[in-house]
Give the backbone structure.
Amino acid sequence: MLDAVLAAGVLLCMLASSLTDPHHPDGPAWQAALPDATGFTLMALGAAALVLRRRAPRTVLAATSAASLAVLVSSDPRTPVVMSAAVALYTVAARTDRPTTWRIGLLTSAGLTAGAMLCGNLPWYAQENFGIFAWLGLAAAAGDAVRSRRAYITAIHERADRAERTREEEARRRVAEERLRIARDLHDVVAHHIALVNVQAGVAAHVMDRRPDQAKEALAHVREASRSALDELRATVGLLRQSGDPEAPTEPAPGLARLGDLAERFRNAGLPVEIACPDRGDPLPAAVDLAAYRVVQEALTNVHKHAGPGARAEVSIVPVDGQVEITVLDGGPAATPAPGCAAHTARTGPRPGPPGLR
């Protein structure tokens, strides 16, 4: 439909242009003489061919160029069928690549201009002949500019789509990493507190009949350990809540500053723990501080579960080269580095960058 309207508009423009006399003594003026039958037929054929310009652009260009050349070498006065050739050349340039546009545009412009100069009724140096080359070149340049702009816009959309996919993949990766971190935290919390509850429950069952006071004390430790486990589980899972949820945790995540509470729980469970933690200067990043706390918690839990009766533990936290080195020594029967002591040393955290956990 749009191409049919364009063809009708081009036909009207050609008819209007054929009724002007550019060589009038007083300047361009309207003339009463209508184009002859041949000229009108060629104009109609050239305009009708434009209806198919999107389906077969090169075929339409060839047809309109042939009609234009026939008018240029035979019709007097000339009829501007070359307008249809200019529109067809614009379509070819807009739908092909630049090298093809240059080759076809140069061939069409040079061929029609040469035909008008060599075989036409006007002198070869008439301005109408040079105007044919200029208008056809302008049509080719306009079509190439439109094609370049479309390609640029398409490339922008493709980059935007790739960036959107990249953001979605990055979001999914971060969600997976966060799930893994929460799973590790839950494992550490549950393993630590369940181990303490298991030991204290065993003590309570063992002394329930002979020493009820000690059994009550062990059950009190069980209750305290279970309450601590529930608090830490609530704080960990609460990170998944929305920011406006009133049940979201308000306390900070555990870190090295809470090692005293951790050691006290193990002492209540029967494991003597000594902690050497000098002033570290600048505070650690929150993620590194939490990881350091979990390392100590896991190491002490393993000591309590596997070192055997009469074991003791020593925790040393020492700054080393802008990072932190954590060493846990236990006095279990499997100790080999020194009499009565086995070493558990953790070195994790960021490689280059700010002080971290080592």
